[in-house]
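Inverse folding, one chain.
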């Protein structure tokens, strides 16, 4: 069961991250389209910000304070917890008397847990396959670099120093010569970047040397290989997401376009540069499997669009300044942090939380209502203890809670500062009531007691009614009955406290009634134009068809 709960929580987190990444990459795509008349360098920076944000989201989300959207929280009524929610109107039901529907709800949670495990295993399999391909590509690059030798003849070292200075590259760049004369020029590495050239590079004319080396060193100056590896990692994590693949492809394409623009800005004629690239693509070997993790200058898949761009004299070829680049990343961070802090419905479940309710003599107390209230997120969940006095919340949202335990004849039990983790069960001892045993939980100091709500109008005040499902165990045992609940409705229209009046009713029926009625929503009652708390009674009938 623990595995099912953890799998459900992990799946909810993965789904939430995927939804946020969808929004992030859609915004990035729209921005790139809006910048279509701007330089490729600026579009490349936009895609880089989107991809880095998609990697940062799963890291930032657990670290940032939760931000709950009221609009999105309302959508939770359509999730598993509120699947039976209906918009109730006056006359749909007898006044505050609800008939439970006969549904085997007990099978829903295990089924969802097993489905979560299957989906997570599929995701892990996809992640493993793509990660294995990425690791294989990196190993091939490392092996090729180890077998290559430094290219020191002619003017290669002089050109490397000259271009590194003009591009403000402070890192030491190694230019290596592969033993294969048909190897495509490639670049990889971050702190110790490497440019690998074919063995035939020694025979190149000076113009080709300058074009190819300046192009590859521009990749190094822009940290393009690091960004492309981040794109590959994002594609591994979100392998099921089409936008992850689109973002990685566009990032690579814009990086090549930006480096082409840098070469053209250095004074090279567009026609001459295009001719050299075409000759490289025609004569050298370009294996997408071997160089998937490297930046190759003349990939055939991108050449056509690059030729169109470089031969168009009206194209904006400006390079992005360092200040503009930092501003782009700052703007992306301002968008990313609220998105990471946003908590979607059913996200961040903390697992189980439970305990046992007993009286002063150590006897188990059944049908005691356990109320968990998270003041920060303004959420309240309730359940009822069973015949052995045990209670359990299967999936409480993470946070700090105040707990109340209510039962007729006993004083209200209170505990605060509780964080559900499923590790420390609560052992609760109820004390006999010193005053009126029928009194509901006391309000805050100085607050007025709730006003009674007339049964003739209470049905019309209901905005949302979650119809209880017949518990599977009670249905199998042919247990029937009516659960009478005393309720306090808060100023926001949410049930604040529920208490089982007929304490001898079957605990399974009582639990189903409390857990469903706690999700009801009322229209706030006004007194002198101010919302007030009200007290009412709800009767839930559990009747089996003969």
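Residues assigned per position:
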């Amino acid at each position: 069961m623990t595995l099912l709960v953890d799998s459900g929580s992990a799946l909810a987190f993965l789904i939430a991250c995927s939804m946020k990444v969808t929004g992030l990459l859609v915004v990035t795509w729209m921005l790139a389209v809006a910048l279509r008349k701007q330089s490729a360098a600026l579009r490349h920076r936009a895609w880089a910000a989107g991809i880095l944000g998609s990697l940062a989201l799963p890291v930032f989300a657990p670290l940032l304070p939760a931000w709950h959207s009221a609009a999105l929280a309302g959508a939770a009524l359509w999730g598993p917890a509120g699947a039976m929610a209906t918009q109730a109107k006056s006359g749909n039901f007898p006044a505050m008397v609800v008939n439970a529907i006969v549904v085997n709800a007990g099978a829903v949670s295990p089924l969802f847990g097993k489905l979560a495990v299957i989906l997570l295993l599929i995701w892990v399999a996809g992640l493993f396959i793509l990660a294995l391909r990425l690791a294989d590509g990196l190993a091939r690059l490392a092996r090729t670099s180890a077998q290559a030798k430094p290219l020191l003849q002619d003017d290669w070292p002089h050109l490397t120093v000259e271009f590194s200075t003009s591009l403000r590259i402070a890192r030491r760049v190694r230019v290596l010569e592969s033993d294969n004369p048909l190897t495509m020029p490639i670049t990889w590495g971050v702190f110790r970047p490497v440019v690998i050239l074919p063995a035939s590079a020694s025979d190149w004319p000076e113009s080709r040397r300058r074009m190819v080396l300046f192009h590859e060193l521009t990749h190094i100056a822009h940290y393009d290989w690091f960004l492309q590896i981040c794109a590959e990692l994002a594609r591994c994590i979100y392998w099921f997401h089409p936008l992850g693949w689109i973002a990685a492809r566009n990032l690579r394409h814009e990086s090549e376009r930006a480096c082409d623009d840098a070469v053209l800005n250095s004074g090279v004629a567009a026609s001459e540069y295009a001719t050299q690239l075409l000759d490289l693509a025609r004569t050298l070997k370009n294996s997408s499997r071997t160089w998937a993790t490297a930046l190759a200058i003349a990939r055939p898949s991108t050449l056509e669009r690059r030729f169109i761009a470089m031969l168009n004299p009206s194209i904006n070829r400006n390079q992005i300044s360092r200040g503009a680049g930092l501003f782009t990343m700052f703007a992306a961070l301002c968008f990313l942090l609220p998105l990471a802090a946003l908590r979607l419905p059913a996200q961040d479940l903390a697992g189980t939380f439970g305990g046992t309710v007993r009286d002063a003599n150590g006897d188990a107390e059944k049908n005691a209502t356990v109320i968990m209230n998270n003041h920060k997120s303004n959420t309240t969940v309730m359940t009822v203890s069973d015949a052995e006095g045990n209670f359990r919340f299967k999936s409480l949202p993470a946070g700090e809670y105040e707990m109340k335990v209510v039962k007729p004849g006993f004083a209200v039990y209170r505990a605060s500062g509780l964080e559900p983790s499923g590790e420390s069960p609560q052992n609760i001892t109820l004390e006999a009531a010193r005053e009126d045993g029928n009194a509901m939980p006391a309000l805050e100091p100085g607050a007025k007691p709730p006003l009674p709500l007339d049964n003739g109008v209470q049905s019309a005040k209901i905005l949302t009614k979650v119809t209880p499902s017949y518990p599977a165990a009670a249905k199998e045992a042919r247990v029937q009955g009516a659960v009478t609940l005393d309720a306090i409705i808060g100023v926001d229209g949410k049930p604040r406290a529920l208490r089982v009046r007929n304490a001898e009713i079957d605990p399974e029926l009582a639990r189903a009634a409390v857990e469903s009625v706690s999700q009801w929503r009322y229209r706030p009652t006004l007194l002198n134009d101010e919302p007030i708390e009200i007290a009412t009674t709800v009767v839930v009938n559990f009747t089996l068809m003969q």
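Residues 124-340 form one domain. The first strand starts at residue 67 and ends at 68.
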